[in-house]
Amino acid sequence: MTSNPAAQEAGWAPARVSPDHLRALTTLGDRSVLIADRSGALTVVTPDQAAAACLAGTARLLATRADLLDAGLRESATAGRMVGPVVEVCELEASALNTVERSAA
């Protein structure tokens, strides 16, 4: 889980992360990250797009594929996606992100 110091600043609405948002990061191929804009809307984008939006102050980083790997998933080229306890990891990570988002609001 990525911390969100930007969410503590005035003008940032809390995002509501679902396990499905995090499952979008589990496919292999293009690298992807989950970001939230000031209104709390979530988008899966490339790391370059995320960096540009975060540096411009229009988005904040919520989660990366590395967060899911750290939480216990592993990459499988054969399966073409991350494998392991995907449902459990995505649910736990979503819950943790939502706790951070609520506490920062």
Notable characteristics:
105 residues; alpha+beta; two-stranded antiparallel sheet; globular
In total, the number of strands is: 5
Beta content comes to: 15-25%
Shape category: globular
Q: Specify the number of helices.
A: 4
- Average pLDDT, rounded to a whole number, is 88
Gyration radius from CA atoms, angstroms? 13 Å
The percentage helix is 25-40%
Estimated structural class: alpha+beta
For the sheet with most strands, the description reads: 3 strands, antiparallel
Poorly predicted regions: none
- Element-level helix/strand string: HEEHEHEEH
Structure in words:
The chain has 105 residues and is of the alpha+beta class. 38% of the residues lie in helices and 20% in strands. It has four helices and five strands. It has helices at residues 19-23, 47-56, 65-70, 86-104, and strands spanning 33-37, 42-45, 59-64, 74-76, 81-83. The chain has a three-stranded antiparallel sheet. A two-stranded antiparallel sheet has the order 4-5. The protein is globular. The two termini are 17 Å apart.
